[in-house]
Design a protein that fits this description.
Pathway: Protein modification; protein ubiquitination
Number of helices: 18
Family: Belongs to the cullin family.
CATH topology of the largest domain: 5 helical Cullin repeat like
Number of strands: 2
Helix content: 55-70%
Organism: Geodia barretti (Barrett's horny sponge)
Order of helices and strands: HHHHHHHHHHHHHHHHEEHH
Low-confidence stretches: 419-435
Largest sheet: 2 strands, antiparallel
Mean pLDDT: 85
CATH class of the largest domain: Mainly Alpha
GO molecular function: ubiquitin protein ligase binding
Protein name: Cullin-2
Length: 435
């Protein structure tokens, strides 16, 4: 009956194509909106005087839902927005500063989920009305995050050698909690995600002493190293992938990404050279994630290192084929990596090393092969980074010992060469390993 009466005011002027709503707007809409304003002014004043903020917000949410339903049922579509806007102005805007905002601090600190959901629902449609809530929310994230990472900022030993899994757990615990809260209470609103990003950036980069090297980039690089090593026990492949995604989440907040890159490249080099990586696919996947986050230039050296490893495999295969074709053999098992000096974070040796005869013939054969295959390239041997396995016989038992090149040189000094006994003396040892 009410709907028919309202819409009859429109039907009266349907013949006037351009102004068919004029009579409806003059006779019904304008007085109706004026009455709506008066009604909700009185309603809001009464509710505020009788209720606490939490109760008031819940009541207003239900009142607004009812008003929208009635508007959609009885009003012309052009009037619905005007009607709900009038309700919102009287019930929310008139009291947002003096009443609703007064409880923002305890709402956020105590995480009153229903209150937060209600106040977001009420303020979301009003321009800039969410700003105070966003500020409180961001401050809460900062304080919670700073408390979570404080042990790594105040304890120097914990920052350099502490449990990196605990550090990541502390950071991601705060991030995941508030990320989920935004989804649950604030309808995944982009402004709240921006507040989350700002808050996380503050506590991730926090330093008690600004004279020290940034700690978060180093801890994050160490965490990556732990995940990508073969020694990562009890962690499945999918779990590693998920944790690497978390690494990128934290990485995006780092202010000192160059520090992360420096430490990450050193640890990557160690994993690749010592065959400690879980898999090359995961190494490449992590580099691709970093590339997506920071661009090609950031990962150029890292990618070159991976490429060098693949090319080294091909080079060694060609060398073995060359030995087979030339009917040549080596006196010992030999594998080498040919790496570009500009891509790898290596320091050059500071002293001289006289190569033992047992190794010299192998090195010379490889150099001749390499110079023939790659004209114009020069090899520089990094003996201080080389390793080898020695088989030792002691009391009728055989032992395999992993040793550095310098350690092997010392062992060979006391080993007969071509059936000629030799015994090391201090001067010989000093000459062989002089630095």
């Amino acid at each position: 009956m009410v709907r028919d009466t309202v819409f009859s005011l429109i039907e009266v002027e349907e013949y006037a194509k351009t102004t068919s709503l004029r009579y409806y707007q003059t006779v019904f809409e304008a007085p109706f909106l004026a009455e709506t304003k008066e009604y909700y002014l009185h309603t809001a004043s009464k509710l505020v005087s009788e209720m606490e903020v939490s109760e008031y917000m819940q009541e207003v949410v239900e009142t607004m839902k009812t008003a929208r339903r009635r508007g959609q049922r009885f009003l012309h579509p052009t009037s619905i927005t005007k009607f709900t806007r009038e309700c919102e102005a009287r019930l929310v805007e008139d009291y947002q500063n003096s009443y609703l905002y007064s409880q923002l601090q305890p709402m956020v600190q105590e995480e009153r989920r229903q209150d937060l959901k209600n106040i977001f629902h009420l303020l979301n449609g009003i321009p800039r009305a969410l700003d105070p809530l966003l500020d409180k929310f961001e401050e809460r994230i900062k304080s919670q995050g700073l408390a979570a990472v404080r042990p790594w900022n105040t304890d120097k030993d914990k920052a350099t050698s502490g449990n990196v899994v605990e550090f990541m757990g502390a950071v991601m615990g705060v991030h995941s909690h508030y990320h989920q809260l935004i989804s649950d209470l604030f309808s995944s609103h982009k402004l709240f995600f921006s507040a989350l990003d700002r808050g996380c950036r503050v506590f991730v980069n926090a330093q008690e002493n600004h004279t020290h090297q940034p700690r978060a980039p180093i801890l994050l690089a160490r965490y990556c190293d732990q995940l990508l090593r073969k020694s990562s026990k009890g962690v499945g492949e999918q779990e590693v992938e998920d944790r690497l995604e978390e690494v990128i989440t934290v990485f995006r907040y780092l202010d000192d990404k160059d520090v992360f890159q420096r430490f990450y490249s050193r640890m990557l080099a160690r994993r690749l050279m010592q065959s400690l990586s879980v898999s090359m696919e995961m190494e490449e996947g992590m580099i691709q994630r970093l590339k997506h986050a920071c661009g090609f230039e950031y990962v150029a050296r890292l990618q070159r290192m991976v490429v060098d490893m693949k090319l080294s495999e091909d080079c060694m295969a060609s060398f073995q084929e060359h030995l087979s074709i030339s009917s040549s053999s080596l006196p010992l098992a030999f594998t080498t990596l040919v790496l570009q000096s500009a891509a790898w974070p290596f320091s050059k040796p500071t002293g001289n090393f006289n190569v033992p005869p047992q190794m010299l013939s192998v090195i010379e054969k490889f150099e001749r092969f390499y110079e023939t295959k790659y004209t114009g390239r020069k090899l520089s041997w990094l003996y201080h980074m080389s390793l080898g396995d020695l088989r030792l016989n002691y009391l009728k038992k055989q032992y395999t010992v992993s040793a550095t090149t310098h350690q092997m040189a010392y062992c060979w000094l006391s080993t007969p060469l071509n059936n000629t006994p030799s015994a090391p003396c201090y001067s010989t040892l000093d000459w062989t390993t002089k630095r």
